[in-house]
Specification:
Layout (H helix, E strand, L loop, with lengths): L2 H29 L5 E5 L6 H17 L3 E5 L6 H8 L7 E6 H10 L10 E10 L14 H10 L5 E4 L5 H13 L4 E4 L19 E8 L4 H15 L2 H9 L2 E2 L8 H19 L4
Parallel strand pairs: 1-2, 1-3, 5-6
Antiparallel strand pairs: 3-7, 4-7, 4-8
Helix pairs in contact: 2-7, 2-8, 4-9
Length: 280
């Protein structure tokens, strides 16, 4: 066998391997899902992200004809869960829900994470969240403007509650404090803190998001199926009704594409890199 024939056979073998691999992937995507899907939630059961995940998962399961099993994994602001998700097989049977904390700010808060943003591929935005400014009944301020004025007159004397470092409302608190130019102490506690431009903070954005992610390498055909199921879920009356109880809304019709979620991640990684960077 001469060298030309050997090279030709090698090319044919390589081409055959590629075609076979493509055929196997296409067949798997066509049959997907054939068994239950695990949805990793990076927080303990009962929190806002957990309720959102369960609400969406139930309707997605109906759309896909398979059960979606919730797996709550707490720890390190959601990073423990995302590590597990990043290392999962990229076959669509393990996905994760994340937010600006777990999938953007975490890279600044925990710089030694064993994964990077490109360890995940976006599936879909499934929820947009809002918070509430909650003050004690006897607090000497009744509006956001009054609260800011009081905080500026009493620097370092106010505690502002949040749900833990890395959580969405922790990030909202940090953004609020920076935009308002106030000196307060942030304390881990179950609470939300947003406001609006009407309060005189046009640079402050209090809207959070929740999105679904799959491990890098998950076939596009499977991502497309999951995206379609997510869209069907968030457009259902059952999800809209439950979201209303949570001060949460579904994404708009033009916000369902995976690329929209990727844009949010890219934007917020940079946003929180600047916001959470240690002082020089």
């Amino acid at each position: 066998m001469n060298s030309f024939t050997k090279r030709l056979l090698a090319v044919v073998a390589a081409f055959t391997f590629v075609v076979t691999a493509f055929a196997v992937t296409a067949a798997c995507a066509q049959d997907f899902p054939k068994r239950p899907i695990t949805l990793i939630v990076p927080f303990a059961a009962g929190g806002n992200s957990d309720v959102i995940a369960r609400t969406v998962a139930e309707q997605m399961g109906t759309a896909l004809g398979q059960t979606i099993v919730i797996e709550n994994i707490g720890g390190a602001g959601g990073s423990t869960a995302l590590t597990r998700a990043a290392r999962a097989e990229p076959d669509g049977y393990t996905i994760a829900i994340g937010n600006a904390g777990t999938n953007a700010a975490a890279y600044t808060i925990y710089p030694m994470l064993p994964f990077k943003p490109d360890a995940f591929v976006p599936i879909a935005v499934v929820a947009k969240t809002f918070g509430i400014v909650a003050l004690r009944k006897d607090f000497p301020a009744g509006t956001v403007r009054e609260f800011i004025a009081y905080a500026k007159s009493n620097p370092g004397k106010i505690n502002l509650g949040h749900a833990g470092v890395g959580s969405s409302n922790f990030l909202i608190c940090k953004s609020f404090v920076q935009a308002a130019g106030i000196d307060v102490t942030l304390v881990g506690y179950r609470a939300d803190l947003p406001t609006s431009a009407e309060a005189g903070l046009p640079e402050f954005e209090a809207q959070g998001w929740n999105g679904l992610f799959a491990p890098k390498g998950t076939p596009p055909e499977i991502i497309a199926k999951l995206n379609t199921a997510a869209r069907t879920a968030v457009e259902s009356e059952a999800v809209k009704k439950r979201f209303a109880d949570l001060s949460t809304v579904a994404p708009e019709a033009n916000e369902h594409a995976p690329e929209i979620l990727q844009q949010l991640v890219t934007r917020d990684v940079e946003k929180y890199r600047k916001l959470l960077a240690p002082p020089q």
